[in-house]
Every structure is written in structure tokens, then in C-alpha cells.
Design the sequence.
């Protein structure tokens, strides 16, 4: 048995540990190879309302992005390769947290590169089924995925990274999405 | 309940895994370091890499941009309880005494054909910033009038206000005073 004083100090100590483990990753310095990061906290009020921005689930803070039967594509990142990275991109690394509401959350994370000068001809397209990446349904799982880009990508090509519902009948959520230039 | 079980509950509660719903972060209406704007579907025309307080981006107003990236949300979505006011903090950078600029808070009645400014208050940056070509923390408490309709919008932005030189802000936070 513990005295009540001991019990209180144990609780206080573990309470602090709990808080410490939740500290926000955004407060640490961004890695040099980071192209972008979004915790989706600074969208509501700052940008036109987007139906994929939600507070139903969140890995950090209040917001994440979702796809479901009403939302085919999540809010995503879109930029010219030359603006995303000063040097040629050969590999992309995507890191983030995914939450699948159920076994029918069959959404994918898509990386797409198109050539705007050729009527958005697709230069590269790849998709990762989130169900193959998450450890468990109905909880947040950390995902890291690398994409090797073809040699013919150019600075004037447009890169788009987003979540696609595919045939999902249940929601899928993404949060704290980081896009890095691969080594 | 044994103390181990109690600790488990505390740790879980701290990490908000169950039921996992999004939680308000402190008392903040919003915070923005302007790092997750470019490429994410927002208008990035007032973002700049010229001078930044943190990260790669800050907001700039100049002769071609009268208003910086703007926060605008109905009051009933901006906070849990009715707002009595907000405490604004931001970092500002003025190149010289020729750079004026103001941080503006407005309450807007957006119903009807024309939106109407119900309340407006601004902080003149020249009154706050004493050193030019340096980032200075600006803090101001805006008190709001009583009995505002929850449908009114809270709008906060950087205004050029006739400045002859560019004006920059970064790392804005808006804390709810309820």
C-alpha cells in the first residue's frame, strides 16, 4: 500500500510524463529536407472552407483531414516541383498519421506528378493503400512511405499529394502530414 | 482503483486517444506560423520568404497587397464560449519609420447582401515597434462589445494602412478571453 502522499506524487509524476509525451512536434526545428508539413490547425478561418477538414478525429490539436462517402479527395498539397524543392527531386518521403474508422476505410494516399504544359499529362502516379500501412483499425498509426520518382520529372511539373477515397464506405483520416525530400 | 490503473487513465487522458476527437488547443482561437499555407489550397499571394520570424514564410503587405492573409470565422465557431475579447500576439517587422501598417480586428455582420462592420479596432504597428529591421513581439488585448450575435464574424488581418514600405508579420496567436 502507498500512503496518500506517495500516491499523489506518483500521479503527479506520471501526469507530467503523459503531458511530455504529447508535446507538439512542430515546436522542434524543421528538418532541412522538409518540403512541407501540415497539422491542419491553421486552415479553419484562414482558407476557404474545405469539406475534408474535420474535428471528428485528430492526432494532434483539433483538426485532421478526411475522406468519406461525401468527400472523394482530401485537402492536399499541390506545388510545382521547382517551388517545392530547389534541387531535383528523385525521391519523396511522406510521413504522417492515419486513422481508419473501420475495415471499409479503403482509402489511399496518392502522389501524382503532371505536366501542366501538356494538358496535365500524368508523368508519375502512385498510391499507397492505407489499410496496408496501419497497424490497427480505429486508432492513429504512424506511416512512412517512400516514392522513387522517374528521371524525367522537371521543375515545371506539378506535384499533388492527397488522400483518395477510392471505394471506401467508412471514413479515413490523416494528420500531421510531412513531405520530405528523400535522401 | 489501484494507482497503476489511475496513472494509465491520466496518461491516456493527456494524449486524448479516446475517443480521439479533436481537442481545442489551450484557449486559442487560432495560431498560425504561415508554414502550412503555400501549396495547401490557400491564397499565398501575401506570403513571403524575404523576412521570417520562424520557418520559411511570413505575411507581407505592400503597395500591391493592401491586406495580409486574413482570419475570418463566425464567432460561434471561433471559441467554445462567447468571447469577451481576444489577446493577440504576433511578431512584426518594419523596415523603417516609413512603414506603418496595423493589425486590425473587426466584427462583421455577414448576413444580407452587404457585409457590415459592427466593431473595429486596430493596433498601429509604429506605436509598438521601436527597432526597425528587427522582429518585435506585439501584444494587444482587444475587448469586444457585449451581446454580439454568434453569427457575426471575427476577422483579424494585417492592413497596409498607407504604408510606403512593406510590412511583415509572423507567428500570430489569438487567445480567447471568455
Sequence:
Amino acid at each position: 500500500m502507498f500512503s496518500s502522499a506517495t500516491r499523489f506524487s506518483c500521479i503527479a509524476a506520471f501526469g507530467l510524463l503523459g503531458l511530455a509525451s504529447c508535446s507538439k512536434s512542430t515546436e522542434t526545428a524543421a528538418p532541412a529536407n522538409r518540403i512541407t508539413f501540415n497539422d491542419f490547425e491553421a486552415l479553419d478561418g484562414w482558407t476557404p472552407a474545405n469539406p475534408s477538414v474535420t474535428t471528428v478525429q485528430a492526432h494532434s490539436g483539433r483538426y485532421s483531414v478526411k475522406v468519406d462517402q461525401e468527400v472523394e479527395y482530401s485537402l492536399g498539397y499541390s506545388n510545382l516541383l521547382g517551388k517545392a524543392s530547389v534541387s531535383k527531386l528523385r525521391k519523396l518521403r511522406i510521413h504522417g498519421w492515419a486513422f481508419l474508422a473501420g475495415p471499409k476505410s479503403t482509402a489511399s494516399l496518392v502522389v501524382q506528378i503532371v505536366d501542366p504544359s501538356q494538358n496535365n499529362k500524368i508523368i508519375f502516379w502512385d498510391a499507397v493503400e492505407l489499410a496496408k500501412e496501419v497497424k490497427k483499425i480505429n486508432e492513429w498509426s504512424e506511416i512512412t512511405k517512400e516514392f522513387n520518382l522517374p528521371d524525367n520529372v522537371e521543375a515545371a511539373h506539378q506535384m499533388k499529394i492527397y488522400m483518395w477515397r477510392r471505394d471506401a464506405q467508412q471514413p479515413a483520416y490523416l494528420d500531421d502530414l510531412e513531405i520530405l525530400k528523400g535522401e | 482503483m489501484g494507482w497503476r490503473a489511475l496513472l494509465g487513465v491520466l496518461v491516456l487522458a493527456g494524449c486524448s486517444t479516446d475517443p480521439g476527437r479533436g481537442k481545442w488547443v489551450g484557449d486559442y482561437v487560432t495560431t498560425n506560423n504561415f508554414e502550412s499555407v503555400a501549396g495547401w489550397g490557400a491564397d499565398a499571394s501575401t506570403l513571403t520568404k524575404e523576412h521570417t520570424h520562424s520557418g520559411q514564410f511570413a505575411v507581407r503587405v505592400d503597395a500591391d497587397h493592401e491586406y495580409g492573409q486574413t482570419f475570418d470565422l463566425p464567432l460561434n465557431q471561433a471559441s467554445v464560449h462567447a468571447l469577451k475579447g481576444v489577446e493577440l500576439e504576433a511578431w512584426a517587422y518594419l523596415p523603417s519609420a516609413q512603414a506603418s501598417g496595423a493589425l486590425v480586428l473587426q466584427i462583421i455582420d455577414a448576413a444580407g447582401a452587404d457585409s457590415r462592420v459592427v466593431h473595429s479596432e486596430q493596433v498601429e504597428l509604429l506605436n509598438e515597434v521601436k527597432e526597425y529591421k528587427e522582429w518585435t513581439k506585439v501584444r494587444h488585448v482587444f475587448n469586444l462589445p457585449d451581446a454580439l450575435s454568434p453569427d457575426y464574424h471575427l476577422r483579424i488581418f494585417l492592413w497596409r494602412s498607407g504604408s510606403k514600405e512593406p510590412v511583415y508579420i509572423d507567428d500570430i496567436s489569438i487567445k480567447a478571453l471568455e
